[in-house]
Records
---
Amino acid sequence: MRGWTPKGLLRLAYDLDEQSVNGVPIGAAIEAARALGRPDYLSSGPDPDMSYYRLGLQVDCYEGEIVGFRLVLDPVGRAVRRDHSFHPGRIILRGVGALEFEVSPATHERDFIARFGQPVETRTVGNDRVQTFLVVGNCIETFHDPSTGLVVEVEFAAAADTTQPER
């Protein structure tokens, strides 16, 4: 990450067809994240996760590749203290021939269901209700505050099991 310059990105977009955030695709070498600028925080280890606090974005890495993206919409409500450093994230979802869909701290679980249909799985993780949606090769996991239904975090990854019906 040495030599990576800060970027003045203000808006994020996730392309469902390309499985990418602002042109940085899942499956690309870690170096591809250079397009997002220098991260504010790197986790330790050979495959550091990169946190962009001002964007509410974490880039997840494994074995030298980008394996997913995590958007934190309610940093103060997250259980991990380091997550409190994020600003509330916002992202535009594009693709699958649909109109753009903005995900923000005001997004409710019913907004995802209206857009993508019923989740393929719903479970509880910690204090969150988690719903999994499979959308054109993407696995989108939405974490919700069970008392309000508001989305507090979203994770984007490539769908590992494409035998389940996709929307």
---
Amino acid sequence: MGGQHAAGRTELEHPETGVGRLILTSWRIASEHGGARWWWVRVHDSPENLRESAYRRSQEDREFWKDAVLGCCQPVRPWTDGGELLIWPPNGLAGVIRLSAENLFTEVIYHELVHAACAVYRMNFARSVDLGTGLEDMAPEEDLAYIYGQLAADMDTELKAWWTRLRGAVEGA
């Protein structure tokens, strides 16, 4: 499932407003742990187009999407059977992770992956990760995502530097 790419650039136009948004590339990533779930990853040409696409999909308060959103994770909404049972899409779709080309930093990517992992955990194991589940109560999950994003980005930087030094030492020997 993971690693499937959509070819080339995709120009999409909103049917009502006619406003275009450019998706530079798209692919799928997946997790099999606890049940197969996959995400579309969309890389938008600009943060503005990312925010507009996110707003159109979520219909949350437009003010939320106005600024400071460098990426976002938009899980699918479950269906109910009329009672408590939540039913997730049978094809395993978990949602869409949106990134912008000018903010493709490891910190932003890993931050959004924390949100994706929490969403999959909620789908496969328990309704709550006790970190909040919606935009209004997401502060704990946001904090975790920032911490993880920063730690992972630092780890990535240090590993690349170490690997470069190691390769240089081996090639120089």
---
Amino acid sequence: MPAHQLSRTRDPDGIAATAIALRMFGAGNAPQTGAETEYFDAFARAGLSVQAAKQMADRFYARSAPLRRRHLGPLAEAGASLPATPVRGEVGAVAASGHTAVRARFRGQAAAPVGAEATAEGARPTVQVSYGINYKGMHCVDETGPDFPFSDEVYIITSVVHIEALQPGQSERQNIARTTRHPFGFVGRKTYGDVDSRETRIGPEVAIWDGQAGEFEGGVSVTCVFMERDKGDPDFYRDEVENVVKLAIAGVAIKYPALAPLLKLEALSETLTDLVNWFLPTDDDEIGHVTMVIDQADLEGFSRAPLTEYVDVFNLPAGFGNTRQVRRPTGLMYHFLASVNDNDYFAGFEVVRTPQHPRRRPDLDVS
């Protein structure tokens, strides 16, 4: 796989300002301006440690000055000062995009409201409803290099974020992130070894998030980072991805202070792309990453639907310049998929509900 390359930065001023704030926060400086106070408070609320901030700032400024200046402008210079006013984003742009959302539309009778049971008399309140998301496995359509032994040592890091609902006596919502490395729990093996094109790895199945209805706002964001191991430690990268996710939470709070909780989750996708680009270590190669938002109604919808098997569809030579289509079941069962690198890699996920509902098939619209 080629060495790490920087993609286009969507918010160069925001990334440069974040680096300045990380450097100051990581140095243990006391805030002196309103902007510094806002950044420092956002870092602390997101759970970002001083040590993690210092490491990310050092990583950023270790990149060559011409590279930083070319991509981010003068604000990325080592001696630049934090702007007096934090960089803000356009709320309308996030509200209009919705490009990261996973949507499920169900045929027939509408589902009962979340937190209610369907009866002959209609929906009625019932016991507390909780949801969970389970990782099911991965499939490789086209690996990142030639098919030779031990070519791709792949691992996946998932990080799921939800925003807690306001509780009595609280004035601010808390952001909760849960990060997991896959394959999970393998003793002595932290990667899927020798992954070739058209191969599937099932499991180990593991819960990557759970929450009770009414205790989180709007839905959840699911970030999925595919990595190819070179010389790094996958568990180290799990921690680093969680730090970048926490930094994204802080960045969204600063850039979009007036956004509703669900739209803040939507904004994480754009923010994470830039932050992964600049603040994630490069000892291992990132194959790709994606962030999806699943609202609470879709958690309910997926939990009622049967799992779908991923079928790999491809063409093989059939002689005389012709091809024939092959449909190969993979055994990877899912409610929704996370795909990266132009659909070269997929990870499958299941949504579960307690108490359970009888399942029916959805008409999926993944946008």
